[in-house]
Amino acid sequence: MSNSTTSTTQTDPRTAKGSLAAFKGLLPFLRPYRRQFGLAAIALVFAAGATLAIPYAFKLMIDQGFSPAAGQGSVDNVNDTFLGLFAVASVLAVATAARFYTVSWLGERVTADIRSAVYAHVVTQSPEFFETTQSGEVLSRITTDTTLIQAVVGTSISVALRNTLLFLGGMVMLFVTNPKLSSIILGMLVLVVVPIVMFGRRVRSLSRASQDRIADASAMAGEILNAMPTVQSFTHEQIESARFGKSVEGAFATAMKRIRARSLLTLIAILLVFGSIVFVLWLGAHAVLEGSTTGGELGQFILYASIVAGSVGALSEVMGEAQRAAGATERLLELLSVKSPIQNPAMPMALPARAANGAALALNDVTFSYPSRPETAALEHLSLHIKPGETVAVVGPSGAGKTTLFQLFLRFYDPQSGSITLDGVDIRQLDLHTLRDAIGIVPQDTIIFSANAMENIRYGRANATDAEVMAAAKMAAAHEFIERLPEGYKSFLGERGVRLSGGQRQRIAIARALLKNPPLLLLDEATSALDAESERLVQSALEAAMVGRTTVIIAHRLATVQRADRIIVMEDGKIVETGTHASLVSLGGIYANLAALQFHNVHVMH
């Protein structure tokens, strides 16, 4: 994955040129709601039209109601004018309410769609993505950035369109009212646009940087909160608080730069706009004194000029919001544009019908390096053939490549050379769900979700019945301790399973894998967190579970692998010894040394 997915303090100069070009990426999310946008546009037109009718009504009131020539009819004219004004206000109220409801609905709906799309895209990424992107930053983009987009879709677009209509309609009516004064004010407004555009680009750059700093702080907080026992055991609470505080202060400093730039933009826009209008109105006042225009026309001109000025001020404010949301949009589109290197084949193959004794698994001259460490081979020219129903144990020192094997079996990564086959089919030709549905895994680091025991085990097979869940729990020696929980299988296990011991979490994971009932079972230190009694129970359960399926076991504790059909000894990404426990001990190599150390220590402890 490119570094574009990680936070950066700089904005790409290519994207900085087209300030609002990033919003084009939102079009796929907006298109399904063309009808709602149409209704909002109709409401906008009516609201803008009603607003633009008000100054004309005032002109009629002044010229026909207060003019000496109106005579006795002045009262009737004033009454009619105010009745007309109330009718206009009624239209304005209904249209504004309709606009608010429609665009607010659009903002919520589009934001929900974006959040769902980004999350659905992220969960399909390979582990390579998460090697370079912190989960806290992803959450920041899904929450904070989408909130900014919600403000644009649900408010800013509506405000921008409304004020654009008011600006254009107001300019037309200004020229209808007094072409000479309008020409002067238009020329002066052109001069206002230049600083707004210049500062707008600066605001956008700072907005992107501000969002990046917020994401950094969120990522740090997420990482620390997930490691609180470690933080507290090393008494690093104050250190981590200070580190987070420094990150927050950095985000605050960047945000203040953005706020100062926006404040300056607003100051310049309002000062120039209203300064221009005051000058033009001064000219208009002299025109009334000279008799070249009426008081009603000047009043109408003043109101239209106020509408134009207010719309320009509102547009400058909206532009600042849009600049900020443009940065957020870029960050979300970056996530959506990331392509996982692990893709389903265009025409997936099907697995052949297998016998009842598990799956055949083979590695053929596989060489693999992790993307984050391309210069170091985790596996090098490794070949291994496992027969259906065979139990193979993989042992060796840390860093030998044992866990890497499991990640390749599950196709979290693809090898740089060589191939891996399941039942004779290259796993790159299989649909990812087909491949992974055929594999059950008990990882070394057990993941327990914030749900009850029943749902945690049912994660192995979503459509399993309660009875099937309980049967799997009994096989994994988990049924008894679950039954002793306050609410049994309905007991909430806490975030990351904090209410369970390490051994209990491990047995939940084993039950989950057994419920899945796959032809290929991967056990990564499956009994590492168990006490002697639990290990004995789980070991017998696993031995029963291995019947009728292929099993690959990673273990540092050699007592758990002695009954394997074959033991593979790995070192530096290569297979260095193969055989049974007895044959490898008699060989006197690496395995024999490991066995001597472990069993000697066990003998000493006894």
From TrEMBL:
<feature type="transmembrane region" description="Helical">
    <location>
        <begin position="151"/>
        <end position="175"/>
    </location>
</feature>
<keyword id="KW-0067">ATP-binding</keyword>
<feature type="domain" description="ABC transmembrane type-1">
    <location>
        <begin position="39"/>
        <end position="324"/>
    </location>
</feature>
<keyword id="KW-0472">Membrane</keyword>
<dbReference type="Pfam" id="PF00664">
    <property type="entry name" value="ABC_membrane"/>
</dbReference>
<feature type="transmembrane region" description="Helical">
    <location>
        <begin position="37"/>
        <end position="58"/>
    </location>
</feature>
<dbReference type="Pfam" id="PF00005">
    <property type="entry name" value="ABC_tran"/>
</dbReference>
<protein>
    <submittedName>
        <fullName>ATP-binding cassette domain-containing protein</fullName>
    </submittedName>
</protein>
<feature type="transmembrane region" description="Helical">
    <location>
        <begin position="264"/>
        <end position="289"/>
    </location>
</feature>
<dbReference type="InterPro" id="IPR011527">
    <property type="entry name" value="ABC1_TM_dom"/>
</dbReference>
<feature type="transmembrane region" description="Helical">
    <location>
        <begin position="82"/>
        <end position="101"/>
    </location>
</feature>
<dbReference type="InterPro" id="IPR003593">
    <property type="entry name" value="AAA+_ATPase"/>
</dbReference>
<dbReference type="GO" id="GO:0005524">
    <property type="term" value="F:ATP binding"/>
</dbReference>
<feature type="transmembrane region" description="Helical">
    <location>
        <begin position="181"/>
        <end position="200"/>
    </location>
</feature>
<dbReference type="InterPro" id="IPR036640">
    <property type="entry name" value="ABC1_TM_sf"/>
</dbReference>
<dbReference type="InterPro" id="IPR027417">
    <property type="entry name" value="P-loop_NTPase"/>
</dbReference>
<keyword id="KW-1003">Cell membrane</keyword>
<keyword id="KW-0812">Transmembrane</keyword>
<feature type="domain" description="ABC transporter">
    <location>
        <begin position="361"/>
        <end position="597"/>
    </location>
</feature>
<dbReference type="InterPro" id="IPR003439">
    <property type="entry name" value="ABC_transporter-like_ATP-bd"/>
</dbReference>
<dbReference type="InterPro" id="IPR017871">
    <property type="entry name" value="ABC_transporter-like_CS"/>
</dbReference>
<dbReference type="InterPro" id="IPR039421">
    <property type="entry name" value="Type_1_exporter"/>
</dbReference>
<keyword id="KW-0547">Nucleotide-binding</keyword>
<dbReference type="InterPro" id="IPR011918">
    <property type="entry name" value="ABC_MsbA_ATP-bd"/>
</dbReference>
<keyword id="KW-1133">Transmembrane helix</keyword>
